Amino acid sequence: MAFLPCFLNQIQVKNTNPVLIILAAVMAAGCGSKIVKRNLVIKEMNWEYVVYLEELKTVQKETWADQLPENAKRISERIVPKGTNTFIREETYTEKEKYICGTEHYGTATYQTRPQYCEREVTRKRSIMGILPEDRVAVTYELKEWQEAGKDKAYLTRGTDLQTPAFSETKPAGDTIRTGRKTAFYAITLAGTDPRDTRTYETTLSAENFAAYKRGQLVTAEFWDEKSEQPLSIRPVDKQP
Asked: If you count DSSP H runs as helices and E runs as strands, how many of each does the chain have, helices first?
């Protein structure tokens, strides 16, 4: 039976199922592999904000003549014969999706964090395929459409030790470009307190947790075992020097 705890121990590293993670952490001691705690110092703090831009571009598409969008410029048309298995129509539907909305603590044996998931409704489109009951006219047309530009055209901001993160309010000029989605990345680099120890460890945090730390601060980091290079979690040391 000693094989079972060791097997679950390996699952913890590769599987994000909360039940398996907690069970593996509790049984880890039975395999000679257990959570390792190290007091480390925050060596570097880095954040990156990206505000993507959207450009108004002319695109070419095809649809049925009776579904031609307003303001579309007709380019050409063709007859699709009866009995063809093809696109029939596009429909809009609503479904629920999960997204990361923060972090949460879990487990009783160790101090660990994991992403917290919330639920929201999103509207999507899908294509309906089928057999044409009669001949239909397909039209090729041009239309102006907002499309996301590459990261090379985005507003990119980087910094360190930022305690109050905020996106730049810079707005693009012109009628054919606008701001789109925004992303943020927060990373902390940890190092040992002994100058002879040259190892470093990096972990990512939420914006809220990132703002709670500062360069030079002592933290307790938890690792899966002695060989792990990625911290499972970090928390402030109770008494700072």
From this structure: 3, 10
